[in-house]
Amino acid sequence: MSTDSPLGQAGQSVCLDGVTKKYGSTTVLHGVDLELSPGELICLLGPSGCGKTTALRCIAGLEAVSAGRVLIGGAEVTNVPVNRRDIGMVFQQYSLFPHLTVAKNVEFGLDMRRVQKLERRTRVGEMLEIVGLAHLAERFPHELSGGQQQRVALARALVTRPRALLLDEPLSALDAKVRVRLREQIRAIQTELGMTTVFVTHDQEEALAISDRVAVMEGGRIAQLGTPEELYRRPISSFVADFVGLSNRVDGDLVGDRVRVRGTELPLLAVPSGTTGVTGARVTAYVRPEHVHLNGNAGSAGSWSDAGERSAVVISSGFLGPIRRTVVQFGDGSTVAAQHGSESEYRAGERVEVSFTREPVTVAPRL
């Protein structure tokens, strides 16, 4: 990645080394280890209360760690005050100064650092060009849309040439279309500037779309760290399989190193402890909708010896542009969703045969 940027420097490495955070007797982070390479964007992804925002605040210095170390650029900053860590931050609430213009809002941090006036103007102009707001420099926050305010906050965070950028759910207050457009702009700016970035979100689609790597958090720990493709295609636990993307929970039985799901044996990604190799162990398999296939030709299923357990009735079918998502119900009352091309349309009440692609799946003990 190029380090030649208008900021004059690229981002630096960020490291959490065994970071624990406690509030009284409650432990929120349990020895978290995480390292970002210079210029990398990592999303902290997880449900509410998993510790992702607390981890971000520990990096920023807004929370004192109970144990472990925080390092930026290889230097320990665990006990360094927040205003001396050289970090840019953007939060869900942009907190722009209502009485200052766009340009003055962006300039504020430079003014506090006593940067010379000519250099301030130059750097503010460069940053407003990067975020596409140069033409709005003299407007006030109340004259801007939510997306434009978000970009002002981003410019304000970046103009001070921080060593890293921390984003805490910065898009959650925006509508869906604006969120998609701005996350793409954030990613483009981050890549152009080579800025090391930690992005906190509970939106798994957002995390998969913009990250170099994603850290899925569960109960104050990192459940899995990997590229978006690794997390989606090879989740190492039922929690990750269930949280990242959509998965069907399908009852199955272990057969050695495979799981039998309605007449089809699927290879395993991860086996729950205590069930390894136990043929007949009852488990739940997590199957992606795109690996579920429907055959509306009922007559063609007559040759299948186990057609009964594959036979289902369509409950609903929704149009999603290039794809459709069809939900079917088996005779025992269980359901699965199939994702397929929108040219294939199924009607409610139609009988279909269900089959599964033999892609590896994650399983968990059946409750």
TrEMBL record:
<dbReference type="InterPro" id="IPR027417">
    <property type="entry name" value="P-loop_NTPase"/>
</dbReference>
<dbReference type="InterPro" id="IPR017871">
    <property type="entry name" value="ABC_transporter-like_CS"/>
</dbReference>
<dbReference type="Pfam" id="PF08402">
    <property type="entry name" value="TOBE_2"/>
</dbReference>
<dbReference type="InterPro" id="IPR003439">
    <property type="entry name" value="ABC_transporter-like_ATP-bd"/>
</dbReference>
<dbReference type="InterPro" id="IPR050093">
    <property type="entry name" value="ABC_SmlMolc_Importer"/>
</dbReference>
<dbReference type="InterPro" id="IPR003593">
    <property type="entry name" value="AAA+_ATPase"/>
</dbReference>
<dbReference type="InterPro" id="IPR013611">
    <property type="entry name" value="Transp-assoc_OB_typ2"/>
</dbReference>
<keyword id="KW-0067">ATP-binding</keyword>
<dbReference type="GO" id="GO:0043190">
    <property type="term" value="C:ATP-binding cassette (ABC) transporter complex"/>
</dbReference>
<keyword id="KW-0547">Nucleotide-binding</keyword>
<protein>
    <recommendedName>
        <fullName>ABC-type quaternary amine transporter</fullName>
        <ecNumber>7.6.2.9</ecNumber>
    </recommendedName>
</protein>
<dbReference type="Pfam" id="PF00005">
    <property type="entry name" value="ABC_tran"/>
</dbReference>
<keyword id="KW-0813">Transport</keyword>
<dbReference type="GO" id="GO:0005524">
    <property type="term" value="F:ATP binding"/>
</dbReference>
<feature type="domain" description="ABC transporter">
    <location>
        <begin position="14"/>
        <end position="244"/>
    </location>
</feature>
<dbReference type="GO" id="GO:0015418">
    <property type="term" value="F:ABC-type quaternary ammonium compound transporting activity"/>
</dbReference>
<dbReference type="InterPro" id="IPR008995">
    <property type="entry name" value="Mo/tungstate-bd_C_term_dom"/>
</dbReference>
<dbReference type="GO" id="GO:0016887">
    <property type="term" value="F:ATP hydrolysis activity"/>
</dbReference>
